[in-house]
Amino acid sequence: MHRARVILQASNKIGNSERFASWLLNKPQAAAMTVQANRLKSSTAAEPFLNGSSSAYVETMYNAWLTDPNSVHASWDAFFRNATNGAQPGVAYTPPPNLAPYSKNEVPLTSLVPASGGMPSIAAGSPINEKIIDDHLAVQAIIRSYQSRGHLVARLDPLGISTGDPASSGDWHGDWHGGLRAFASEAVIRQHVRFDEADMDRVFKLPSTTFIGEKEKALPLREILNRLEEAYCNNIGIEFMFINSLEQCNWIRQRMEPPNVTKMSPDQKRLILARLTRSTGFENFLAKKWSSEKRFGLEGCEILIPAMKQVIDTSTRLGVESIIMGMPHRGRLNVLANVCRKPLHQLFTQFAGLEAEDDGSGDVKYHLGTYIERLNRVTNKNIRLAVCANPSHLEAVDPVVQGKTRAEQFYRGDNEGKKVMSILLHGDAAFAGQGVVFETMHLSDLPAYTTHGTVHIVVNNQIGFTTDPRHSRSSAYCTDVARVVNAPIFHVNGDSPEAVMHVCNVAAEWRATFHKDVVIDIVSYRRNGHNEVDEPMFTQPLMYQKIRKTKPVLEIYADRLIAEGVVTAEEVKDVKDKYEKICEDAYNQAKQETHIKYKDWLDSPWSGFFEGKDPLKMSPTGVVEETLVHIGKRFSSPPPNAAEFEIHKGLLRILKARMEMVENRTVDWALAEAMAFGSLLKEGIHVRLSGEDVERGTFSHRHHVLHHQKVDKATYCPLAHLYPDQAPYTVCNSSLSEYGVLGFEVGYSVTNPNALVLWEAQFGDFNNVAQCIIDQFISSGQAKWVRQSGIVLLQPHGMEGMGPEHSSARLERFLQMSADDPDYMPPESPDYEVRQLHDCNWVVANCSNPASLFHILRRQIALPFRKPLILMTPKSLLRHPECKSSFDDMRDGTAFKRLIPEEGPAADNAANVRKVAFCSGRVYYDLLKQRRDRGLEKDIAVVRLEQISPFPYDLIKAEIAKYPNAQLVWSQEEHKNMGAWSYVEPRFRTLLQNQKQISYNGRATAASPATGSKAAHTKELRNLLDEFCVL
Ligand SMILES: Cc1ncc(C[n+]2csc(CCOP(=O)(O)OP(=O)(O)O)c2C)c(N)n1
Ligand SMILES: [Mg+2]
């Protein structure tokens, strides 16, 4: 661990005995009286109200009194009389009469001084004295300092290597034990406050912001310091004082400060030992059987397994029934085996290199997910555990887990997250380095994204592959990212099992109480290299010398429990042997297996969805007109209480225009989308649309949420009020994140197939910020993990002169990742469409009219399986007068048209048509206008591919056959190395079988997706349209 701000030099080492001496030397000599009269010395020196700075004053008073006792105040007179009469030290002083009542802001001294216990810091009934107040304030400051800075000197590192002065550029030195540690507390925590040894027995009233006293209201300073050291500087370091809520800070103090909070019963200790035995035994068994296999073992942080189990036990005890987990490679197999209790033989078959029984390309064993329902033996409650499958891309699974958790909460009606929760595991380097962690954290408290608290556990082995923390992050801790959401952070020494368990209990309780994120940072080490075949001594020689000398935590803990008499050595061995036998039996069972099954590793089974379904039968997507009218009217109406609910005048105009369209049986883009959503909602399909500014729509066309112009937060969402028994509709503006939010929606989409989950990019151009989610989850998720998703990506796309970053959703990339073979044309069949959809990895479409949008969205649900849909969506077409559809194209009996043939004069005159231009999306309207303007409507046929991938070979073939004398072109507005050209060209070739050729009509190749110059844009467009008209 890299607590860079701890400034300590090894050369400062001082022993215990020297410690007090140095402490005393540092302080001003209190009460060093300089009163000339020697006999006064002893009594005055002992007077607590006198100190060094007052000695000159006392001297003046004394000299004045010697000259004339009446020249000084009566209280001085009494004091000097008592002192000269030999009063015992400390009792010469008599308080003066209290002439005035205490003002509002003054605290009577008696209230500061406890009536009993220890030596009072001053006699009761004395007036306020500056020193007393200072001392109490100092004690308060010390308490506060421990609370906020104690973690800096806590003994967190099992290797003891993290105490270096950053200035020494990381030499491993220092020793947290004994003198240096005490000195550390002094240097780091109490640096501005000095007390002497005599002060140690003085009793101080405890402020309400500490719970070290339990029932005691005051404690001697020595005890205060001891208890603070124990709570804050032992094996747990807590960061929580940045939390804005006093209630939450107190809650933590209450659980961490009282003495002995980490004490466990013998039963609890035995349970920890048993769990540690399994955790350690599992890795040992794998190491023994497959010594050269990569498994990213947990050795060095075996405590993770008992820790996770503790979080799960406590959370289930507090009402949680389902836990969704995301984790990286480290210790993953161990988690599946010992936390989820996945059958060991299934795990072991993954090492056997067997072929898979089912479809898919599969994934390496330390990426696979699982889903298990079982009885939690500790709480005797049934629990569901899922570990999400994840890619190598570290932390990418975080938002996916959150989306899945949120979805499960939603379907269960668990609005406060009491039944479903997530646990996220992190590596120290990835947690600090990967930006998606921050993006995910920022979803944690948003109304439409919160999962009501996540328990984050960091396997902090103080290294990332071969990189030291001091070179992999600038923050003091790898967990600092969690501070932004006010999550408490518990750093804990991984070799202190009981401290770890205590922290796990507190973290689970925190989540159950406040429903906010919390972090457990298990400071540990990595016993082997990054994987089992790596040599760590190449790069971390000193660290690994230390590791070689460090006993495994199981040994440390077992020895301790044996010494405590909690277990015997025989019992320890017995538990170990039993677990080894379990592993052996499973190993033998695994040897019998001939195939692996990817389905065994599914993290989100959709029970009941596939059963009894014809896998090639699609439900109709057309809708009866009455439904279209009903949804259209509701969507076009102001709120029912319109008299009180004042909406913007501009919106009233929009609603009026919508209503006119409904009356004319036409729809624009927004209305078609609303009708697709509304009709699905009517059918009981939950719809969720998320993304930046989606409620209004980036282009101000959607307006799904109407805002009262006079009342804050008063909104109305027409689509949520279409039918009394409709499914819920969620539309939510997201945080300004693509990676995090798209990941979240993917997780949401895999939870339940009966939902339409859509993510809209603000402009399609920004989807590449979420490239990892697109590549690792959406495009390849089903192939790797047999997990389907029907997520829809709405991607504003189109060359409209808006410059390089507001023009292209990079259609070409999605098409390039489509897995259909360009050289293979599937045989024609009546179920051609659905068969192709069944076999593809995703659908890529660029629709040109609202009816297509309506059908393709509904088709997502009409399919008997789920596929992601990548949909290019328009910008200017949202308001284009020709971009309208009739109810006739959406009614029952109609369906999605993968291809829209030419319907104008050219179609009636097919034999004479000289050119057929195939195109997709927005450019259609430019081509149409050009053809009209040039009077070429009979000569050029324009055919639209509404679905580009899977490639509609069957329909294209029929279109080509219609126009035997025409040359074929592909017209696109994107540059030649972009858009659909490189996808369609080889497929046309396959289709045409050298009988004919298709040529390219579009912009030239370019590095940037679009020009930033309006003039250049217009010129490029003119060129492509001119070329389109060349016959
Ligand atoms: C996004 C990403 N970048 C790089 C890698 C390559 N990589 C795999 S593990 C690893 C180190 C991870 O360190 P840490 O997060 O501390 O986990 P540990 O292996 O120490 O448990 C790296 C860089 C990756 N898997 N993902
Ligand atoms: Mg690490």
From TrEMBL:
Top class in the EC scheme: oxidoreductase
The GO biological-process annotations, alphabetized, read as:
glycolytic process; tricarboxylic acid cycle
One GO cellular component this record assigns the protein to is: mitochondrion
GO molecular function list? metal ion binding; oxoglutarate dehydrogenase (succinyl-transferring) activity; thiamine pyrophosphate binding
Keywords for this entry?
Answer: Glycolysis, Magnesium, Metal-binding, Mitochondrion, Oxidoreductase, Thiamine pyrophosphate, Transit peptide
Query: Is Cell wall biogenesis/degradation a UniProt keyword of this protein?
Result: no
Segments forming domain Transketolase-like pyrimidine-binding:
667-880
List cofactor names only: thiamine diphosphate; Mg(2+)
Localization terms from the record:
Mitochondrion
Its Enzyme Commission number(s) read 1.2.4.2
| InterPro entries to which the protein is assigned, alphabetical | 2-oxogl_dehyd_N, 2oxoglutarate_DH_E1, DH_E1, KGD_C_sf, ODO-1/KGD_C, THDP-binding, Transketolase-like_Pyr-bd
- One Pfam family of this chain: 2-oxogl_dehyd_N
Into which family does the record put it? Belongs to the alpha-ketoglutarate dehydrogenase family.
Known role: The 2-oxoglutarate dehydrogenase complex catalyzes the overall conversion of 2-oxoglutarate to succinyl-CoA and CO(2). It contains multiple copies of three enzymatic components: 2-oxoglutarate dehydrogenase (E1), dihydrolipoamide succinyltransferase (E2) and lipoamide dehydrogenase (E3).
Q: Which NCBIfam families match?
A: 2oxo_dh_E1, PRK09404.1, PRK12270.1
Name this protein carries in UniProt: 2-oxoglutarate dehydrogenase, mitochondrial
Q: Which organism is it from?
A: Vanessa tameamea
Taxonomic lineage of this organism? Eukaryota, Metazoa, Ecdysozoa, Arthropoda, Hexapoda
